[in-house]
Amino acid sequence: MRKPLLSTGLRWLWLVLVVIAIDFGSKQWIMDNLMLHQSMPIMPYFNFFYAHNYGAAFSFLADKGGWQRWFFAGIAVAIVVALLVMMYRASASQKLNNIAYALIIGGALGNLFDRSYHGFVVDFIDFYVGDWHFATFNIADCGISIGAALIVLEGFFTPSGKQAKQKG
């Protein structure tokens, strides 16, 4: 017997659309208002800096000739499918997990769109101290990172996580 979709974690798919919309809108604004490698100071320690990332996090494999575009696209599709299955199997009341999965899916799809359409991911968030700059990233990356952090945090809040702590 099938369970009603709204009783599953798929109820949280609206959050995927929010992440995609904010990610797409912010990237489009950057492409429309900055030239490649142009920096726009926002506040101390924070700039918008328009960059193209042909690799993954921290430009991993960015200089490998193009095959990585489809490799990372395939990974994104696999992750999205796996998380959608997990959301379907989860109850809608498992808010923290479903929010985490939705943030990761939204981020993965945002970067997948860039990779598929442009051949690169648009990055623009630049935190720095003095001459040191953290890796430039985007809203999709924020969704993925926050989602992953929520999954880790959830492990501390579940009864099984508490039992494992007490045994150790």
Number of helical regions: 5
Provide the helix percentage. Answer: 55-70%
Q: Which residue ranges are poorly predicted, with pLDDT under 50 across at least 5 consecutive positions?
A: 161-168
Strand content: 5-15%
Question: Structural class per helix/strand content?
Answer: alpha+beta
The main sheet orders its strands as: 1-2-3-4
Determine the N-to-C terminus distance: 40 Å
Secondary structure: elements and pairs:
Blueprint lengths: L12 H21 L5 E5 L2 E8 L13 H23 L5 H23 L3 E9 L2 E2 L5 H19 L1 H9 L1
Antiparallel strand pairs: 1-2, 2-3, 3-4
Characterization of the model:
The chain is α+β, with helices and mostly antiparallel strands and 168 residues long. The protein is 57% helix and 14% strand. It contains five helices and four strands, in the order H-E-E-H-H-E-E-H-H. Helix 2 (67-89) packs antiparallel against helix 3 (95-117), helix 3 (95-117) runs antiparallel to helix 4 and helix 4 (139-157) packs across helix 5. It is globular. The protein starts with 12 loop residues before the first helix and ends with a helix. Mean pLDDT is 86; it is low at 161-168.
What's the short version?
The chain is α+β, with helices and mostly antiparallel strands.
Give the key terms.
4-stranded antiparallel beta sheet; 168 residues; disordered C terminus; alpha+beta; globular; 5 helices; single chain
